[in-house]
Amino acid sequence: MVTAKIWLSELGLRGLRRLEPAKRPTTVGILAFETARTMSLLLSLYNSLTDSEIRALRLDVFRSEGVRYLNSTDEGFLLNLACSERIENLDRVALAVSRLGKKCQAPELQGFDKIYDDLKIGSVDVMKLGFPEKKISQKIQKIEKLISATAELYSGLEFLNEMEASERKLQQWKSYSGPIQAEAKSNPDQFLRKLALQRKHVGRMRAGSLWNQPLEKIVPIMARLICNVFARICIVFGPYVSDLPHVVSDGRVLFIASPQRQFDDTGRSAPSCYTSAPLERSVAKDVIIRSSGPIPQKPNSVGVNIFRNRKPKQQETTSLWLGFGSEERRRISRKRNPVTKEASKSTLGGSGLSSRYATVISVAERLVRCPDLVDDGTREELYEMLPAAVRVAVNTRLRGLRRCVGLGPSDADDWREALERMMDWLGPMAHSTLRWETERTYEQQRFDSRPTVLLLQTLYFSDREKTEAAIVELLVGLSCICRYTNTSSACSSQGLMS
């Protein structure tokens, strides 16, 4: 709590203390790109928690047929998954900011990790840590400008590195008559002039980017925005996630509610398991999700919890709570399993098959749209991606169809319509899975502040039995389309999986 009090006084209301003239502030320097990527992830989290994004999550994602059919119809379970993933990403941002804070001179920045721990257990006042609502948009614009300038510097340095590599080859060619690029060989003087201009351009970009910004100025901005993001997470997901401090709003400022309000709300208990819709049923798009609360038409600009069914009482909004009241609750609040660990063995994520099946579905979708692309190589590649059990199921289904009387070319149109309807809800799940993996694979080069895909939108939590049944239907239908339309000689005799 000592560190928290220091931070409250230094960052909460009065800002950072001025450095002594004898001490020279440390600039971000080579850490500019890592800092810009951390800022991008922080802005991505902030943008994903806006009222419009939360409304889309609840009305579009939770009600999508793929999520309801393969993942879960339990809104409380989905809310817990979304919250856990956002908290994990915020933890990563806070860890990066803590590392940067260790390089600062101010003790309140060096102890940000302790402040963040206290923030997560509700023992510090979020109202005094984060930015006031009227200043957030200004800070966001400033951060976006710095990210954009740093991204340009990153591209400029890459181009400069390529030119300097060509310059080294030019020097080698002059000394040893070695090979050299055509541009430099044809006009070395012009190339050297371009290189000098590029170096000056990089110098100007470095001056306007995070490179020359003092850490004592950048770290507090990120640290305080982390507090705003965490407060927003508590407002949005607090009623359904039991280990989050209960932050409420009276329309002007944010408060931490009393512990009675924190733990007496029965609507916040989350289920320990989930069930997806039955295999035979199709979910209508306008179905009303059970246990859903009303959505206000005009949300408050401070950040309204659209999942709440009733407004907080006046005496509850004006009270401040600075702790759970017991060490056990503190210990529970610190323990949060990674969201990927929530997948059971009956799901694709728990079986390690989500990525493979997403690729299978994406390839099959492309072939359904254009059967002319099916050839021996594509057919063999698709077949090798399938586990042995799915191969057996596909071949068994195909043999059963060949024994049926009355199947002919006219059935191809029916199969195509059926597969297109299936791909309307199965395809987005596969694309989200591949996009989720791509966003994390190329995260080191990412300067994008758009909201990322949530794991609950992917095949990770999909029921394995239902997904495999859908894939079998998809591949059998594709085989029949190829066989009866005669669009490919490779498909005309044996079918796709024969």
From TrEMBL:
Residue ranges, annotated region (Disordered): 332-352
Source superkingdom: Eukaryota
DUF668 domain location: 347-435
Boundaries of every DUF3475 domain copy: 30-85
Any GO BP annotation: positive regulation of growth
InterPro entries reported in the protein's UniProt record: DUF3475 (IPR021864), DUF668 (IPR007700)
Protein name: Uncharacterized protein
